[in-house]
Amino acid sequence: MTVIDTIPVSEALELRALARRDIGRFWEMIERDRAHLETWLTWAESATFESTHDFLEEQIVQHAEGRMANYGIWWNGRLAGKIDLRNLEAPAETNVGYFLAAFARGNGVMSASLRALARAAFTRLSVYRIELVAALGNMESRRVAERAGFAFEGIARARVIVHGKLHDAAVYARVASDP
After folding, report:
1. pTM of the entire structure?
2. How far apart are CA 134 and CA 45, in angstroms?
3. Considering only Cβ atoms within 10 Å of each terminal Cβ, which end of the chain, N or C, has fewer?
4. Domains in the chain and their CATH numbers?
């Protein structure tokens, strides 16, 4: 499967496949926003430059191989976050993950990015279902899902681990036939 390298969202916003040249900027974003990110993303707590480098290197390879779609969110010329689709080889089991830097929050950047990525996945990548799982208490992420047109499907008990503890999760999905 060929993955899309750039997805235009608006004049000021685009999704661009992360590349090796972006690793330093990506690390700086994590360092700057670590306190907020680690609230729900356990990996942020212990991330080092080396672990981040290795993580992104692997995702860059998976993107090139068409196993995942891995994008930096570029807003007004700055790296503002990350969004990815995993499990592309299983079009009914594709799932999405994302996070956004503090400077871009509250501007509709993530909702617009998620809508654009879902549209591209359905029209250009032969995906027909995208699942989004967020810890039940992660209201910020849940609101993004709802604004991007993902339907709430229910609560999965003990579905995510945050800081070593199991949490229930809200499960959302969007399918190709959704308006």
Report:
1. 0.94
2. 18
3. C
4. 6-131 (3.40.630.30)
Take residue 130 and report the two structure tokens written for it. 């995208």
**Structure tokens of 140?**
């910020």
Q: Which residues neighbour 50 within 8 Å (Cβ) at sequence distance 6 or greater?
A: none
Instruction: Considering only CA atoms, give the Rg of the chain.
Output: 15
Residue at token pair 């499967």:
1
Kindly report, residue by residue over 114-169, the tens digit of the pLDDT.
Answer: 999 999 999 999 999 999 999 999 999 999 999 999 999 999 999 999 988 999 99
